Amino acid sequence: MQLKAWVEITRPFNGIMGALAVLVGFFVSLNNFLINGSLILGLLSVFFILSAGMMVNDFFDRFIDKKKKPRKPIPSERISAKHALYGSFVLFFVGIILSVWADIAAGLIALVNSFLLVIYSKEFSKKPLVGNVIVAFLVGSSFVFGAAVAGNVFSMTVFVLAILAFLSTLAREVFKDCEDIEADKGERKTLPITIGEDKSSNLAGFLTMLSVLLSPVPFLIGLNWFYLAVVVVADAYFLWIIRQGLKKEYGFCSRHMKYAQALVLIGFLAGIL
Fold it and tell me: In whole angstroms, what is the distance from residue 153 CA to residue 146 CA?
């Protein structure tokens, strides 16, 4: 039962998704599919750091979860708040050490992102826009982290990938806040609650359109025609999502943004074949 609680609080699926972002950043920065020891260290590092982030988030949310989600590990007392906090410190430390072992630049990124995960959970997860920006930055920087692990932190292609990931993730976050506006009232001060649903939805659509406009850049700076072929389909998907946003289908938008983003990542990998 105790092991199950620790798996639940670390939410390993998020760590796996973060590791996949590192994998893509690593491959794209090298323009090949080389696998080495530094990559393994980088994958383990991001998995541990994101797992720590999940734990520290549950630590700071423990009082809200006591009322709203009492079955979670801390409010149900399967894991004590103190043990969760100490456990997150251990995982953060191990993740940062592994990242430094892989590459100094990767270690610096891991240190900054670990700090952001803590400060997000403590201060900004329930504040308008800034929390969304931090989440989007963490997603985008995962690809740069992968490039750093490869020893190519200044890869222009990965930098553009990070910008596209940032824009589309920020749009997805805002769409999700629009979807959850009723549930969040009285609990979180999100952007739609602060400035209104329509303005927030328009911002999400604008960010999505901006990512579409920037999507040809990787082809112009070196990726092949396979990338362009895939990203054209992804862009059409994004435009469809924008249209659904105008129709206030926010649940559709937040859900399908993930699929469109995955298609873009496939495009990047196809672009280095």
Answer: 8
Q: How would you classify residue 107: left for phi > 0, otherwise alpha for psi between -120 and 50, otherwise beta?
A: alpha
pLDDT in the model for residue 151: 95
Could you give the domains of the chain? 1-153 (1.10.357.140), 155-273 (1.20.120)
Task: Please state, in angstroms and rounded to a whole number, the distance separating the CA atoms of residues 21 and 116.
Answer: 18
Of the two residues 123 and 206, the one the predictor is more confident about is 206
Nearest-5° Cα angle at 115, 110 to 120? 125
Report which of 224, 236, 233, 235 is spatially closest to residue 270, judged by C-alpha positions: 224
pLDDT in tens, 14-29: 899 999 999 999 999 9
Chain position carrying tokens 């993930």: 258
Q: What is the DSSP string of 35-90?
A: --HHHHHHHHHHHHHHHHHHHHHHHHTHHHHHHH-TTSTTTTTSS-HHHHHHHHHH
- Cα 169–chain centre separation: 7
